[in-house]
Amino acid sequence: MQTPQANSFDRRLTSLVHRIYPKIDRDILASLIVAAFWPEGTKPRKRGRLPGNNLWTEKDALLITYGNSILDGAHKPLDLLHDFLVRRMKGVVNGVHILPFFPFTSDDGFAVSDFRAVNPQLGDWPDINRISTDFRLMSDLVLNHVSSQGKWFNGYLQAQAPYDKFFFEALPEEDLTDVVRPRTTPLLQKVETANGPRHVWCTFSHDQIDLDFRNPEVLLEFLRIIRLHVDNGVRIIRLDAVAFLWKETGTSSIHLPQTHAIVQLMRLLCDYAAETIILLTETNVPKAENLSYFGNRNEAHAIYNFSLPPLILHAVMSGSARYLRGWQRGMPPAQLGCAYLNFTASHDGIGMRPAEGILPSAEQAKMIETIKDIGGLVSMRALPNGGQAPYEINTTFYAATGQTFDGKDDYQFERFVCSQTIVMSFEGIPAFYIHSMLATPNDLEQVARRGMNRAINRHRWDYPRLNALLDDPTSDQSRVLTALSDRMQIRAKQSAFHPNATQFTMALDDRVMGVWRQSLDRHQSIFALHNVSNHTVEVSLLSMNLIDDEPWFDLLNEEQIDTTQETITLAPYQCRWISNRTR
Is 145 annotated as a binding residue? Predict the structure, then answer.
């Protein structure tokens, strides 16, 4: 006899199946979904996990890296990455996002040719397993498209089942004017198949052919792939480019209801899995669209805080937190069981779409002009009217902090560390791109060699040289890694920095970004203050609710605060975490 919880699972699953595939027998497809996700006699939990704040703590943080960001010409890159993580990152982060580590043909891994294999140039599954033993592992589910040179698309070209129905086709004469996409290349690509000429949909490039999720066999195959990754130690599934998953001609083909329903279906399966699996959606879009992927606590467990990179960069470039503060004030707390993933840099550029409606065009223009001054680049996207607009800024974040709107100065190190400390302080889980942790400069040589703007931020370090720099306390690499590591180790001890701890945006001088954090049990308060300017700023103690009869400390410099004074001083780009508890 089935339990009420089991009945609830079955009922929710069949309801979602009917929403996505109304013309297919819901009970049969639901049974196939269960078999795909729980093969060989395994089965769902009796009870699904309820939304709560216990999936993460203040100790959680991620490093974002390619599998080959570190090389030495002798050892497997994944072995070198594991060595780096254990040697340099223990106690700093407890998770790692290894960007697509599968065989691929382009886009640095995001044109996957085989989801079931590890790229042999990086290593093999046992190397992935070793990393997952020591760190919480995130993998990419590149579910919108696959390589034009992989088995799936070759099977499509030859009209081989089941791949002959795996890809989204459209006709050039159909209405595609409203389609939203981040590229300027033609959307449709004509190909010759065994069934004659066809036009396939390519949201990103002509080597990345979009899949057709109207065919449930595509969904089932990806559920099997998720199971393979989970069985190999992956615990965070990043749904890459998920917003474009479901397509219909005559629409924008972004954020369609079926896309949200598929994310809900995946969340349901994860909540009933024996393993604790977190779903993270990658949707580099304006705020309201991004927030929609929390659903009603039934879609993503976590979403990227995509507005942070351009807004934090603007703040430290302009010396004003006005726009960052205004945006932060309007951000809702993450729903119960959900969290933001906070970052400033990733393998991609600094997206400008999430700044739309927040940063005036004149301020965006100043950012772009400044980035060009320091040797950075700008990538464009196509608009429905045939025009173009800035899509992202291409630069390492460390290089981007090399100067302000007023020009160069001697504060790059302080400015950069301030930008990363803001990420540590905000509600959510902090994540750091490896090239931010390593103060990597812009790699213009890679851009010239590879002919792609994003290569500027995808340097590959020679491991012996990197270790020599990290062992030299005067190098930028050592100074930055030491400073960020020290702050992250302090952060991990503060319950007020739990990803879901209370946050209130403080009304302060425009040059100071301040938030008040309070632990879930209300025992600890932290007033996190960040001077984003090259001026010394005085902050009134009256602007902070410093409870009487309790000592207050600056956690970052171990200084006790004299509460009889009227103000507290912030040097240029100084950050202060004022707390009533030291742990």
Answer: yes
